[in-house]
Amino acid sequence: MIKFQNVSLVLGGRTVLSDVSFEISPTEFVGVLGPNGAGKTTLMRAVLGLIPPAQGSIAILGKPAIRGNPAVGYMPQLRGQMAHLRLSCRDFVAGVVNGYRLGLPVLGKADHAEIDRVLDLVGARSLARRPVAETSGGERQRLLLAQALIGKPRLLLLDEPLISLDPHHQRSVIELVKSVQTELGIGVLLSAHELNPLLGALDRVMYLARGQVALGNVDDVITGPVLSQLYGSEIDVVRLKGRIFVMSGRYDVEHDEHRHDDGAGHHHHQHSHQTHPGDA
Amino acid sequence: MMVPVTIITSTRTKPIRAMLEYDFMRSAFAAAAIVALVSGAVGYFLVLRGQTFAGHALAHVGFTGATGAFLLGVAPLWGMVATTMIAGIGMGLMGERLAQRDVAIGIVLALALGIGLLFLHFFATFATQATALLFGNVLAVDTATVWTLLGLGVVCLVALAVISRPLLFASLQPELAEAKGVSLRLYSVLFLAIVALATAECAQIVGVLLVFTLMVGPAASAQRLTSSVGKGLLLSASLALAEAWLGITLAFYTDWPSSFWITALSAGVYLATALPRPSSTLRRQAARR
C-alpha cells in the first residue's frame, strides 16, 4: 500500500525524515506517534504527494505518490473555522464531491448517493440538516472523516483526529475509524499524541523521532531500548493495567508533548493523565 | 442627491409607474439590479471564506484609482477597475502572509484614501466628486454606464460560475482540496480578482465606503437564514436586489440619499436575522436530550 524507499524529506531547509524505508500493507491500521515536530504531518503530506522526497521514492499502491491520487483519503486537523460555518453538515460534506472540477457545484444522483454513503458510514446521517456551527467536536470529526471517505479511497490518512477531544470522544472516534476500516477493508494511517486511546485498534505502530522511524507491533516498538535509541536519550516504558506510559527520566514524554500544544512549560512532574478508568 | 429637487417634489405623491418614466430612475434600477446580483453572489463566497475585509480593502484602493482616472481624464470606473484588480491579484498572491498584517494593511488603506484625496484636490469639482465616489450616486448613472456595468457583471458572474465548485471546496476544506490537486493560491487569486471587479461595480451604486452594505450584508443575512449553498446564493442575490431597489425607491419618495436607505435596509435585515430565535434553540435542545 505505502512503500518508502530510502526517503529523505526536507522542509524549509530542515531534514524531517532522513533515509527512511518502510512498508505498510493494504488493510493495516497504523498509528503514527512521535514528539511535536517529528514529522507526522510532513510524512502524511509526502504520502499525499504534496511534499516531494528530497531523496528516495514513495510508492502508493505501486505508483509514485502524486497529488490528487483518488485512492488516498485525507482528514486534516480540525480547524477553528468550522465553529462559525452556517452551512448544513450535508453541504459541508457535499463541497468535497468532485471539488477539483471546474463548474457549478451542482450534484447528480450518483453524487447524492455518495454523500449518503459516507454520512451513513460515519453515522452522521442525522446531522445532515444541522449547521456545522451547531455540532460538537466529536461530530465535527465525523464530518471530516465523511469528507475523507468521499470517492472510495483505499488508504485513509488521519492527521491528529483525537486532538482537543475528551477521552470519551477519543474512544468513540477510534471505534468509528476502526469499524469503517474493517467494513471497507482499507488501510489507515492515524497520527496521535497519545498511544493509549489507540491500543485496541492498532495493527502496528510507527514511532517518529529525530528523522528516524520505528515501525512494528506495539510490544516490539514501544520498549525502552527501541525508544531510547530513537530519541537518543534514556527512555523507560511503563506498562500499567493495559496502558503504556513512555517516560524520559521522571517525565511522561507523551504528556509533555501534549502540554506543548497548550503553550505550557516543558517540565511537569510525572503523573498519570489517563484519569478515566478503562480508557484503553 | 444630484437630481434637481423640483423633480422630486413634483413626483412625491405619484405612483411607481410615474417613477419609472424618468430615464435616470430606469438607469438607476437597471444598474442597481446588475450590481446587486453580482454583489450578492460574490459576497456569499466572501463571507463563506471569511474574507469580508478584502472587499472593504479593495474599495479603498479603488478610490485612488477612480480619482487618478479623473486626473487623467478617464472614466473613474475604469480607474477603479484597474486598481482593484491589481490589488486583488496582489492580495491573492500574498495569501496567508497577509493574515497577520492588519496594521500594515490598515496603513496602506489609509494611504490609498489619502492619495485619492490628493488627486481630488487637483480636480475642480472637488466636493461633489468626492461625495459621489465615497458614498455613491446611483441616480447619476447614465445609460452608457449601465451597459458597462452589465458587461463587467456578466464577466464577474461567468467567472464565478466557472470556478465555483473548486472555490467552494478550497473554502470549506483547504488542506483536503490541496491534497486533491486544487491550487489554493490559484483560486485565491482568481476569486480576489472577481471580488475586485465586483467591488468596482458596487462602488458605483453605494460608493467605496459603503461597499460592505451590498457585498457583505445580504450574504451574511442569507447564511443566517439558510444552511444550503444553493439557496444561500439565491437568497443573498435576492436580498441584495431587494435592498438596492427598495433603497432607490425610498430615496425617490423621500429625497434622502439612496445609499442611506440601502445601508439602513441592509443593516436592518442583518440585525433581524442575527436576533436569537428562541423557538429553534429550544427545538435543538429538545432534540439533543
How would you sum up this structure, described in words?
The complex is a heterodimer of chains A (280) and B (289). Chain A has 280 residues and is α/β, with parallel strands linked by helices. Chain A is built from eight helices and 13 strands. Chain A has a domain at 81-98 and 107-152. Helix content of chain A is 28%, strand content 26%. In chain A, the strands form three sheets. Chain A has a six-stranded mixed beta sheet with strand order 6-7-8-3-9-10, sandwiched between helices. Chain A has a four-stranded antiparallel beta sheet with strand order 2-1-4-5, with helices on one face. Chain A has a three-stranded antiparallel beta sheet with strand order 11-12-13. With 289 residues, chain B is mainly α. Chain B has a domain at 16-209: Orthogonal Bundle (ABC transporter involved in vitamin B12 uptake, BtuC), CATH 1.10.3470.10. Chain B has helices spanning 5-11, 16-19, 23-48, 52-72, 76-94, 102-121, 126-135, 143-172, 174-179, 184-206, 211-215, 217-225, 229-254, 258-274, 278-288. Classes of the chains: A alpha/beta (280), B mainly alpha (289).
- Mean of pLDDT of chain A: 85
Q: What are the secondary-structure elements of chain B, in order, as H or E?
A: HHHHHHHHHHHHHHH
Overall mean pLDDT of chain B stands at 86
Backbone structural class of chain B = mainly alpha
CATH architecture of the domain at 16-209 in chain B: Orthogonal Bundle
What are the secondary-structure elements of chain A, in order, as H or E? Answer: EEEHEEEHHHEHEEEHHEEEH
State Rg of chain A: 19 Å
CATH topology of the domain at 16-209 in chain B: ABC transporter involved in vitamin B12 uptake, BtuC
Helix content of chain A: 25-40%
Highest CATH level, the class of the domain at 16-209 in chain B: Mainly Alpha
